[in-house]
Amino acid sequence: EIAPAYKLTFFPVAALAEPIRFLFSYGGIEFEDYRFEEKYWPLIKPNMPFGQVPILELNGKVAHQSIAMARYAAKQVKLVGSNDWEDLEIDA
């Protein structure tokens, strides 16, 4: 079986990663939902951009900042405005 292209890494809670999970699920996009226990955070943190999670990995690239990742996921599942004004309203 081929692994999903996307890997989302976060703590085992909803919080900042949940909108990204919802968007991928809505669009039927498979992704690895990697949730690590808090006790491992001191080992993982030094390798995270800005020392933060969630991160989204795709083809060796790493994205960070949950709002930017949610906007990306929304674009992937065609949940975006039809013009810049609608995008502004969605962002607001």
UniProtKB/TrEMBL annotation:
Spell out the coiled coil positions from the record: none
Q: Which reaction does it catalyse?
A: RX + glutathione = an S-substituted glutathione + a halide anion + H(+)
> Which molecular-function annotations from GO does this UniProt entry contain?
glutathione peroxidase activity; glutathione transferase activity
Q: Key word Transferase present in the record?
A: yes
| Domain of life assignment | Eukaryota
EC primary class = transferase
An example GO BP is:
glutathione metabolic process
Q: Which residues form the signal peptide?
A: none
The EC number(s) this enzyme carries:
2.5.1.18
Q: What InterPro entries does its record include?
A: Glutathione_S-Trfase (IPR040079), Glutathione_S-Trfase_N (IPR004045), GST_superfamily (IPR050213), Thioredoxin-like_sf (IPR036249)
The GST N-terminal domain, residue ranges = 4-81
- What are the UniProt keywords, alphabetically? Transferase
Keyword Transferase appears in the UniProt entry: yes
What Pfam families is this protein classified in? GST_N
PANTHER family attached to this UniProt entry: GLUTATHIONE S-TRANSFERASE, HEMATOPOIETIC PROSTAGLANDIN D SYNTHASE
What does the sequence similarity comment in the record state about its family? Answer: Belongs to the GST superfamily. Sigma family.
The name this protein carries in UniProt is glutathione transferase
